Amino acid sequence: MNEQLSLLAAAAEPAATPESMSWAQTLILSLVQGLTEFLPISSSGHLRIISELFWGVDAGASFTAVVQLGTEAAVLVFFAREIWQIITGWIAGLFNAQRRGRDYRMGWMIIVATIPVVILGVLGKDLIRESLRNLWITATVLVLFSFVFILAEKVGKKTRGYDELNMRDAIVMGLAQCLALIPGVSRSGGTISAGLFLGLNREVAAKFSFLLAIPAVLGSGLYSLKDAFDPTAGQAATGLQLGVGTLVAFVVGYISIAWLMKFVANHSFSWFAAYRIPVGLAVMALLGLGYLAP
């Protein structure tokens, strides 16, 4: 009887109110999001690490997903001409078979390649927002996936251009995008590496990676908007904080895209592996010494 009363009392207690984010945390994490979203070093991994390191708490996957809307807006602006051509070409091709050119095919490639991450993202929502955000997983993946970059650079022929993209390439890169659901992998890192393995040159792999991310990230951000205000895991942010954070991520993200597109023309992605490995090992050390909670 006493046990039953205890259970009823516990059920009647109000749920714990999520901790609110500070403005310093909002601005710093938004800046980190803008800097790291397009670089193959994992924005979600960095947000997870920095939140725990400086504030001792996980900001949460919902906040990350919403602020990513800012970086995706940067993609929309940076590639506005290409995106418009793809949208209009795809619509025109739906109604006129004679206008089914490259842009029509590109539209379908992005749509088909987005399906896997949408399915896994919805079905694995709870896993993604909780269990997979363990810092041991993030640190391990930062290190291990760095060797994928190195291998992709080593074996990829990097000879195929933008006009040679096909549905097989899109599907493989779309499946690779699913790995980004694990903080530490990196959306751009996974998809660009897949593109290099398929023989695409760096610029093409990076460009298609950014275009491919648009529907998935926009969908994830809009889907998570409500949870960001009233999260079941992580912290709560106000509408103003989310708005300012998204704007900061947009500005910094645009600069990051412009820099990366110039960088990849003449530099190997292995340089990013040289950054990821020490960071991952450092996080492991801090976890092992008890300075960070997993």
Report what the structure shows.
By secondary structure, the protein is mainly α. It has helices spanning 2-12, 23-36, 43-55, 61-78, 80-95, 102-123, 125-129, 135-144, 146-155, 167-177, 187-197, 202-223, 225-229, 239-263, 270-288. It has a domain at 59-132 and 150-274. α4 crosses α12 (202-223) and α6 crosses α12 (202-223).
Number of helices: 15
Q: What is the radius of gyration?
A: 20 Å
Shape, per Cα inertia axes:
globular
Q: Look at the helices and sheets and give the structural class.
A: mainly alpha
What is the helix content?
A: over 70%
**Mean pLDDT across residues:** 84
Distance between the termini: 38 Å
Which percent range describes the beta-strand content?
Answer: under 5%
Record field, number of beta strands: 0
Topology, please?
Elements: H1 2-12, H2 23-36, H3 43-55, H4 61-78, H5 80-95, H6 102-123, H7 125-129, H8 135-144, H9 146-155, H10 167-177, H11 187-197, H12 202-223, H13 225-229, H14 239-263, H15 270-288
Summarize the structure.
This protein is mainly α and 294 residues long. It has helices at residues 2-12, 23-36, 43-55, 61-78, 80-95, 102-123, 125-129, 135-144, 146-155, 167-177, 187-197, 202-223, 225-229, 239-263, 270-288.
List keywords for this structure.
disordered N terminus, mainly alpha, 15 helices, 294 residues, globular, single chain
